[in-house]
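Annotated sample (chain length 281).
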Amino acid sequence: MAKVIGAITTSHVPAIGAAIARELREDPYWKPFFAGYPPAQRWLAARRPDVAVIFYNDHGLNFFLDKMPTFAIGAAPEYRNADEGWGIPTVPPVAGDQRLSWHLIERLVDEEFDVTTCQELLIDHACTMPLALLWPGRDAWPVRIVPICINTVQHPLPSAARCFKLGQAVGRAIRGYDEDLRVVVLGSGGLSHQLDGERAGFINRAFDLEFMQTLPGDPRWATRHSIPELVEHAGTQGIELLMWIAARAALEGEVRTVHSHYHIPISNTAAGLMVMETFSP
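Output written by the structure step:
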């Protein structure tokens, strides 16, 4: 049977892609950010996942305000990267795992999640930045992916509690899969930031750190907040923390933090990273 080996949550700021392309990892501005990732890279190298299930939010490559699914799942043989307007260099295509994708789709529908099935799907920086940060310097990606998109753009958004239940259902579906796979679950987005309006540039360090501290042991802490409350605390685009909640929910049992890193700012965003895994006390 498949096994969920852990969850990694990370920010996906578009400027990261430009910094990687320009080889700015040692630049004084960027070095404190990139310094947080080697422990996560070593953790992955030791555990060698076969597949990464990625909770992410689309930035206009596939879905627009006229047609915006609440939850969508990729079921493609491969996923090609395209520039959604930031000028980020594109990366090589990523192989999909269609059989696992359809298993997740069927199990989620059985659990009464109305998901949109995407047999063709472009991926943007929300998928490619985590891959580039966690498996740097690769000409070919060492994992297949199953992308799961959560709407963070068009209201009404799914509640944090609903996203937690989605993550739980995905975790159950992975553990019920009849192939011997090692699966890592990624949550891509956040943390606090707002790109426009009167609060443009908003960052809430105190909330971010409390969110990160509670996520492993008390993941329902954030689900007690409504979407407007989370936007108030984390900013309009900071609502991407829904992906972190879903990724954490895919883990069952006692969960510990293997590694965490927090840095502000990168561009105009609070950047966070967490590696979590289950353990037996």
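Annotation: DSSP finds nine helices and eleven strands in the chain.
Annotation: Residues 189 and 231 are 14 Å apart (CA to CA).
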